[in-house]
Every structure is written in C-alpha cells, then in structure tokens.
Amino acid sequence: CCSFARKVGTDASEEDDDSLLQRQVAHREIFDIAEGALNALLASEYARPDSATFSGMIRACVNLLPNTEDRDDRVIELFRLAYCTVPSSGAPSSPRMGSSTTSERMRAPPGAGCVDANVLRQLRHALPSTEDYIRVREEFEKHRRRHVGEE
Fold this sequence. Notes:
This protein is mainly α and 151 residues long.
C-alpha cells in the first residue's frame, strides 16, 4: 500500500509551502516504513522478498520521494538488490515453481533473482533517462548470464 500513497485528486497549484512540506515529510515517513518492511524481509529466516516486493518498492520511490538524482540512485540500488536476491523456492516467479496464473513471459528468467516483467516495467517508469535505463539493464543482463543455474 505504501507504493500507492500519494496526493490524488488535489490541486497542487493551491498548495502552500507549509502543506507541501508536511506532505513531503509524510511521504518520507511512509517510504521509511516500506523500507523497514523490506529490511525485515531480507533479515527474516521465515519469509523472503519477491518480485512483487521489489516492484512495489520501486513504485514507492517514484510516488513518495522527490524527483532527484538521489531517488534515481535509490531505484537503481533497489533494482540491483532485486536481481541479487534469490527468490524463495515457493515464489511464483521462480522458474522451478510455476503458477498456472503466472504467464511464462511474466516469470523471472533464470539467474534474474527477484526481477520479473513487473519489476522491469517499474524500473523503466522510474528512470527518466533512457541511457540510465539501458546501462542498468545491461548490468542486470551480465549478472543474470553469470548466475544462470545458481537459483
């Protein structure tokens, strides 16, 4: 739900500086909650983040953090973490454990960690520069090819 929190249906032109600052602080607090949940999943021995987790976190960056280079760097960090995180063996995006509701093209390819088509879609939407997107995708493909068969 953190990835969907934003000011919808309000006229930003009528927003004064104080309310804008309050909204930015609230958004940062919401993002910090989401990041804490991700860190708890990463540290847990009972649960693991999956592609939906990382897709939601990238979307939360876009919706909750100011549009700056720091945000872009955070998105790239999350994407790298996603492809370095081995999904749980029961995750629907895992190639070993297919789901009848998950189409073949939506599943993570071998060696991709927790990156599936949804994560890639959120990455493309989050990075304003085509050059940054291509650079990050090339890094991902190199990583994926090196790690095929390790999951």
